[in-house]
Fold this sequence. Notes:
Blueprint: H1 3-14, H2 19-26, H3 30-38, H4 45-53, H5 58-63, H6 67-86, H7 90-105, H8 119-122, H9 125-135, H10 139-153
Helix pairs in contact: 2-3, 6-7, 7-9
Amino acid sequence: MSAFGERLREARKAKGMSQDEFAAIAGVSRRAQVNYESGERAPDAGYFLAVAAAGVDVVQLITGVPAAATQKLAAVGEARDILVKMGLPEEQSRVLMPVLFQLLTAPQPDSSASTSTDLHAELTPRERALLDNYRHSDEEAQRALDKTSAALAQPVAPAAATPKRPRKAG
Length: 170
């Protein structure tokens, strides 16, 4: 059995399904499912879409690495790119790397999550980290952040159309 076939079998069993049941949600025959698990054949994109819709982590199925872990690896690269673009000394970059990583990997807010009136309880970890960074900045940095956020919050007016000049009859 191939490594992919083993991961596929484990994913099916984790769902508590037989090969027939898993094949049905994937839209293939039992024979195809047996072939995929044994490594004799590889599924097509439609198969992966169907099992993903059923809640299978397709990234882990294909690579052996959970999707959450690959997203965190991507966030490390993104944080490193940000720090390089900022041109900070290495010492400062080392200090900022964990903060950027936390911000990049923090869960996004769920608009239906909370009905609490406590503002702090409604903040996501990412928002809490931003607020904490703001509060620990000096006054000059806070003023700069205030101006930047105020500017970003302004609606962008559509570009004014320039009037067309009438053509001269020639």
